[in-house]
């Protein structure tokens, strides 16, 4: 599959700092994200903790007086 992606200058600089072509750097980021996602699925306790944190973030906080 081939897709077109617009990347920021920050990503281009980061790839250059690592001595990688931009496309290889982007592929490594995708691979890393997929691996972390698979590892998280294998740890239900971690998933539960992440979901609790997300719930806390979305819960409105009352105003203090």
Q: Care to describe what's here?
A:
The protein is mostly helical and 65 residues long. It has one domain (9-58). Helices cover 68% and strands 0% of the residues. The protein contains three helices and no strands. Helix 1 crosses helix 2. The termini are far apart.
Summarize this, please?
The chain has 65 residues and is mainly α. It has helices at 9-17, 22-41, 44-58. The mean pLDDT is 81.
Average predicted local confidence, pLDDT: 81
Low-confidence stretches: none
Biggest beta sheet summary: none
The count of strands amounts to 0
Shape: elongated
Q: CA-to-CA gap between the ends?
A: 56 Å
Return Rg in Å: 18 Å
- What is the percent of helical residues? 55-70%
Q: H/E order of the elements?
A: HHH
Provide the β-strand percentage band. Answer: under 5%
Structural class: mainly alpha
Structural domains: how many: 1
**Total DSSP helices:** 3
């Amino acid at each position: 599959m081939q897709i077109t992606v617009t990347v920021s200058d920050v990503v281009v600089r980061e790839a250059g700092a690592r001595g990688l072509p931009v496309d290889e750097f982007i592929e490594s980021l995708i691979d890393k994200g997929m691996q972390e996602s698979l590892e998280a699925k294998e740890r239900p306790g971690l998933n539960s903790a992440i979901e609790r944190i997300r719930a806390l973030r979305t819960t409105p906080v009352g105003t203090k007086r």
